[in-house]
Amino acid sequence: MSIAENVAAIRRELEKAALAAGRDPKEIQLCAATKMNDAEAVRQAIAAGVDCCGENRVQELTQKLAQHAYDGAPVHFIGHLQTNKVKQVVGKVALIQSVDSLRLLCAIDAEARKQGIVQDILLEINIGQEESKSGFREEEILPLLEKIGDFPNICVKGLMAIPPISQNSGDNLKYFQKISHLSVDIKAKKYDNVTVKCLSMGMSGDYQDAIRCGSTMIRIGTAIFGARDYAKIHQR
Ligand SMILES: *Cc1c(COP(=O)(O)O)cnc(C)c1O
Hints:
By secondary structure, this protein is an alpha/beta fold. The protein is built from nine helices and eight strands. The chain has helices spanning about 5-20, 40-45, 60-65, 100-115, 140-145, 175-190, 205-210, 220-225, 230-235, and strands spanning about 30-35, 50-55, 75, 95-100, 120-125, 155-160, 195-200, 215-220. An eight-stranded parallel sheet has the order 7-6-5-4-3-2-1-8. The protein is globular, with a radius of gyration of 17 Å. Bound molecules: pyridoxal-5'-phosphate. Pyridoxal-5'-phosphate (PLP) binds near residues 35, 78, 162 and 222. Pyridoxal-5'-phosphate binds next to β8 and α8.
């Protein structure tokens, strides 16, 4: 199947899942997770109508920006970002979804201040409390948001989560529900510079469940572009 056909198929599934959950499909954005796919593939996904692109690696972002690969759609950063690379990302992307530590948050705020801009971000939650993964713990979020006014050059737009790799469909429902509950808790308080309009959760294998639990942004790689060639990673 072509990229266009894959995007159309995901749109249909997205709509089905939204309607089954009593939700308006229009409130759910489709983000193409473009890692390891080249500029031409990205252009095809944008032509097929994805709402935005998500890039994981700074090097790929920089290269594809230079190639004007994302023209016509906003680009987001969705991978682990090292603090020494924030300069290459802040102001270059519409949204940094993967803010996974206070240290990174401080670095983004400082760089945004230098550039005289406000950078939109999501807070990434390590929802499965996995050692191997970065991200805030659930219980860290409300205390952090209490102090978010100290960072005037970032604006928190919501939460992002990557649950543990699951074996069975339905395994991730409990994690998606946790994120959804956390977003309700955040909305109940009124923090400066914080909205929780965006809940970025759900990937190729579990986006229907994420939509059931209130996801407003699904990040899809494999189901759009096909399986990634992981041999390429080892060449780096
Ligand atoms: C790769 C990636 C995705 C997409 O994963 P698929 O299973 O290929 O759909 C989503 N989010 C992040 C952060 C990713 O790195």
